[in-house]
Amino acid sequence: MKNNKKYTLVALLSLGLILSACQKDQANDKASDNGKAETKVEEQAKEEKPAEESKKDAKDADKASEEVSMADWEGEWNSMGGYLEKPEIQAAYKTLAEKENTDEKTAKEGYLKKRKCDFGGLEISGDHVKFLKEFPEAKGEVIAEADYKFKEKVEAEHEGHKLEWDIFEATSENAPYKVLMMMPIHGEESLTHFHMRYGDDKDSLLKEEGWYPTFVKPSSTDQQIIDEISE
């Protein structure tokens, strides 16, 4: 009887050790499974992050595209070059020459070169641009016309200042210029105007030094033009 009790006690102790070991193995297996699951989640998150960033970049680009369109410059515009030979304007070149410490002829030639433009005016409606031979009020010849779509924004430096160009690409096959570069309209407190560039290659246009064809509202006065030249 005594031996039977002894064997029973040993059996119970052995069973307890086995159960304890099983529970420990189950706990280890569970911890291992949890660790694997966490690792999988982390790896999945790493894979998803670049995709999310790409989606964000695409979304930002779409937003910029929605915010900018050729319609932002809608209306009729006179090329500033059409004013620069008027007798009423000539006194401005003397002031400009004094400011630039040069003679009047050199000052005028430099300014005409900076504002040089191959057309006299613009008519913009939605994405459609008409290039006019003269000011719009003359109701003269339309040199060419085309539709343009916003492509991107590009920053550039000019004399220590940061400039922002809105780049547009032609969607019309017969467009006279494949690329238009537009600066936002500004100067409303004095002379409402904007600068632009036109051509067939964006990179070449960005490298141009000192060329800023400028367009003003048809209501602009000679005095406003004089002030713009003299400033």
From TrEMBL:
Q: Where in the numbering of this chain does the ZinT domain appear?
A: 61-229
State where composition is biased (Basic and acidic residues).
26-66
Cleaved signal peptide residues: 1-27
Q: Does the keyword Signal apply?
A: yes
* Gene3D superfamilies to which the protein is assigned, alphabetical: 2.40.128.20
UniProt region (Disordered), positions on chain: 25-80
The identity of this protein, by name, is ZinT domain-containing protein
> Which keywords are on file for this protein?
Signal, Zinc
Gene Ontology MF, one: zinc ion binding
Q: Which PROSITE patterns does this entry report, sorted A to Z?
A: PROKAR_LIPOPROTEIN (PS51257)
